[in-house]
Amino acid sequence: MDSQIKKIHQQLVSKQISCTALVQEKLDLLKQNTYNSVNSVLDTLALELAAKVDAKIANGETIGLLEGIPFGIKDVYMVQGTYTTASSELLRNYKSPYTATAIQKLLDAGAIPLVKENCDSFGHGSSSENTIFGAVKNAVNPELVGGGSSGGSAVNVAKDYTVFSIGGDTGGSIRQPAGYNHIYGLKPTYGRISRYGLMAYASSTDCVGPLAKSIEDIRIVLNVMSGKDPKDQTSIVSDEITEEAIATSSIKTVGYFKNFIESEAINPKIKADFLATIEKIKAKGIEVKELDFFKSDILVSTYYTLAMAETASNLSRLDGTNYGNRIEGDNLIDSYAVTRSENFSEETKRRIVGGNQVLSQGFSDEIYLKGLALRDQISENFSEDFKEADVILSPVTPSTPPKIGDSLKDPLAMYLSDAYTVGFSLGQLPTLTVPQGTTTGLQITAAKNNDELVMQFANFLKDTI
Amino acid sequence: MSKIMTVDILSSIKGAQPSESVNQLFEVIKNAHPSNENSLNNVNHNCVSVGDLREDVVVESSAIEKEIIIENFPNKKNGFLVVAKVIEG
């Protein structure tokens, strides 16, 4: 599919449509939708902004490419004056006092925020069922999960309720729902986009990223949000990626992890489709290399050990003292314990408790520090891989989307379903899901800061398979 | 003096218990053999150099930001923000 942003921009400039009518149409679709993809609709703000865009066009003023383009925001981003619930009971009535840097950049470019989108509470989940707003339904088959944690964002894009949405990816939360709903979803290089104003889950892998229906729209939105931000000291300087730079592919070698494909856990159809894709790539004269990688259980366990430790620390601030749904107990300590016990979901509590276990005396050496050492090894493995291959191609998930209700019954199975996404998070590598190749898509990964290469190869695959 | 703290105390979550599913993940790590058990964090450099720190200045919050912070406060009485009882009577 071609760029929706450019198409709408042309329609606005040529006065084929008005921005107000466009925004109103999308708001109506969001309000009427039955996919549970919406936590709150920003109708007043969106219509005010749309009227300003229409006035500019009527006055003959030039508008920017993103001006008037409606978008969605995962409900973990601060947008001043809007409810920011993280799909949790604790923050059900919490309003953002300030705006996240990534979102502010989009607002400055004139994009129009329509909706705060449903997701797993605090990003804790792979199905968008861990939410107080009802399980997000898959855009292709509503009996299945929408994926997660950015499930509402993926479904809104897939159903054309938003032109693009901003998700958050800690261990696959943009890439997996993008795959489940047949759209594009990018986890950029860690630090390329500021995390300021994103509710922290696991700070060392949390990434801001776009979901959209075309590579070009991903590129446009990524460029606007990227850049060093004094408010996030892990953010990095990056160059703009031009349309020309990703138009033709310079990729000569592609690698894939043979243990991902030889795993007993992979769905036979996904395996066959992936291998068929590899053959098509070879037929184009590209060298394909089989690479060795860590076993899935090591990847998943390393990721969850570190992510739980970080989330236990990050969420310790949520005690109901200054904000959130405080429940008064017998004393201060009791108030904290009751507030957190009653307001956190079972999955969030599981992760906080797990995190405190690994950080506690006696366990930290045996588990947490060992997890950090494994992460180093995983990253070193990637460094070696990118001496061998320009990009790495993987399936997004070993299986097709589960039915709604199944993931909640078996947390371990849910954790293991992240086997193909978490490694790239630990390596902080740019990885894009493309809606091709297998029924849940393909992931393209490049070395750190090579986001451009990922999009180049996506364009190549678009024309090849 | 040794004092064992249980996970419900460590987590400030009443009645919290360790999870069997999560413990299975930890078992995998316990049984893993990294080539170097001491993490040097020599791959992912996310620390900031002292020469690149942001300016250490106080930034005044906007009026709307202050207003929303007060609006978010969970308990108010007679114009005061009420916190949980800290000092026992």
Which homologous superfamily in CATH is the superfamily of the domain at 4-245 in chain A? Amidase signature (AS) domain
| Largest sheet: spatial strand order of chain B | 1-2
**What share of residues of chain B is helical?**
25-40%
Total helical elements of chain B: 3
Structural class of chain B: mainly alpha
Strand content of chain B: under 5%
How many helical elements of chain A? 17
Low-pLDDT runs of chain A: none
Give the overall shape of chain A: globular
Instruction: State the name of the first-level CATH class of the domain at 4-245 in chain A.
Output: Alpha Beta
Please provide the count of β strands of chain B: 2
Order of helices and strands of chain B: HHHEE
Mean pLDDT of chain A: 97
Can you offer a commentary on this structure?
The complex is a heterodimer of chains A (465) and B (89). Chain A is of the alpha/beta class. Chain A has helices spanning 4-13, 19-32, 43-58, 101-108, 151-158, 175-180, 215-225, 258-262, 268-283, 296-314, 332-343, 346-359, 364-388, 406-409, 411-416, 422-426, 451-464; strands at 38-41, 70-74, 112-117, 164-169, 184-187, 207-212, 253-257, 287-291, 391-395, 431-434, 442-445. In chain A, helix 2 packs antiparallel against helix 3 and helix 10 (296-314) packs across helix 13 (364-388). Chain B is flat and about 60 Å long. At the A-B interface, helix 10, helix 11, helix 12, helix 13 and helix 15 of A face helix 1, helix 2 and helix 3 of B.
